[in-house]
Specification:
- It is a single chain.
- By secondary structure, this protein is mostly helical.
- The longest helix is centred in the middle third of the chain and has 37 residues.
- The relative contact order is 0.09.
Length: about 120
């Protein structure tokens, strides 16, 4: 079994479980806590992505799906994680400047969206 480092508040629980000789339960507790942390991060990331999606829908009246596709495309063309593209876009509401690369790709994607709607 590989060694797992647990936060200080978890150590008494893990020690009690380990001293009881129940390695399977110990592994399950550690795995569930890791999944819980991961889900918490995903939820906070999702909120920012949804905010950016709403911004795109306001900029170029389109469906939620098209806004999602546009953000994913910007992310892929810039080779920047979607959550980072979304964070940068949302940060513009607090007077932060959108990075040039994202700005350029977002403009290109919005033009493409408008052209598709006209054509």
């Amino acid at each position: 079994m590989h060694q797992v480092t647990a936060p200080r508040e978890e150590r008494p629980l893990l020690t009690a479980v380990a001293s009881a000789g129940d390695a399977a339960l110990l592994a399950e507790v550690v795995e569930l806590r890791a999944k819980n942390e991961q889900l918490g991060r995903a939820l906070s990331t999702r909120a920012v992505i949804d905010q950016a999606r709403g911004m795109v829908m306001a900029l170029a009246p389109c469906s939620s799906e098209r806004a999602w596709d546009l953000l994913v495309g910007v992310s892929q063309h810039c080779n920047i994680k979607l959550r980072d593209v979304a964070s940068a876009l949302v940060a513009t509401t607090k007077d932060e400047t959108l990075p040039e690369e994202i700005q350029r790709e977002l403009r290109r994607a919005l033009r493409g969206l408008h052209a598709a709607d006209r054509g």
